[in-house]
Every structure is written in C-alpha cells, then in structure tokens.
Design goal:
Helix content is 0%, strand content 49%. By secondary structure, the chain is mainly beta. The strands form two sheets. Strands 2, 4, 5, 6, 9, 10 and 11 form a seven-stranded mixed β-sheet that branches. Strands 1-3-8-7 form a four-stranded antiparallel β-sheet, with no helix packed on it. A hairpin with a 5-residue loop joins strand 5 and strand 6. It is globular and about 40 Å long. The relative contact order is 0.33. The model has no long low-confidence stretch (mean pLDDT 96).
Length: 121
C-alpha cells in the first residue's frame, strides 16, 4: 500500500502560478495528477515515470503545466502557470506500480485525498 498526500492548493487569481506537491509513503513506479471540477468527471492532467522522468500531459496542460519529481523524497510536483478559472478543481495525486504513464484512471492503484485549487478574480 502506498499512501499519497497532496499539498499546495489554494485560492489564486487568473494568470497566477501555483505548485502542488504529492508525497508518497514509499516508491511508486509512476505518479500522476488528475483533477475533478464540480459536477464533472475526474480527468488526467499529467504524469511521470519516476525512474527516468518521462512525462505525459493532457492537451489542456501542455505548455502551461509541468510535472517533475524528486526520487529521493518519493515526491512529485505539478507546476501550474497562467491559471484560469477553468483550472478550478480538486487535484488528486495517483500512483501506480506499472511503468506506463497513462491517463486512464483504472491504471492507478493508489490515490490521495485531493487538494483544492480555486482560480478566481
């Protein structure tokens, strides 16, 4: 079992940046960020293979968001830039024992409790 804890959410203004952190209790081969806006499904944002740093992103995240990791700390980060109100959601961290970085929710074995991000003027 891998326990995941997210942090870094909050209220920001449009155009601002925010960095989320996810710390795992032990190593997961792949980690990813998903988000769920009110009344909508949980969707993939970006993920990373911890071994070599290979990343994948959703179309909405490309160019604005960056996923990175610190292997020694079993930690993954999500740097979010140029935030818009459409980025408002609960952001979840997910972990997998597999090495494939995928946007499929079913591929992830472990989930954090989520951290709220609100983008509003």
């Amino acid at each position: 079992q891998v326990h995941l804890v997210e942090s870094g959410g909050g209220l920001v203004r449009p155009g601002d940046s925010l960095r989320l952190t996810c710390t795992a209790s032990r190593h997961a081969r792949t980690m990813a960020w998903f988000r769920q806006a009110p009344g909508k499904e949980r969707v993939f944002v970006g993920g990373i293979r911890m071994r070599d740093g290979t990343t994948e992103y959703s179309d909405s995240a490309k160019g604005r968001f960056k996923v990175s990791r610190d292997i020694a700390k079993n930690t993954m980060y999500l740097q979010m830039n140029f935030l818009t109100p459409e980025d408002t959601a609960v952001y979840y961290c997910a972990g997998s024992a597999d090495v494939i970085v995928t946007g499929a929710l079913s591929a992830y074995d472990y989930w954090g409790q989520g951290t709220q991000v609100n983008v509003s003027s």
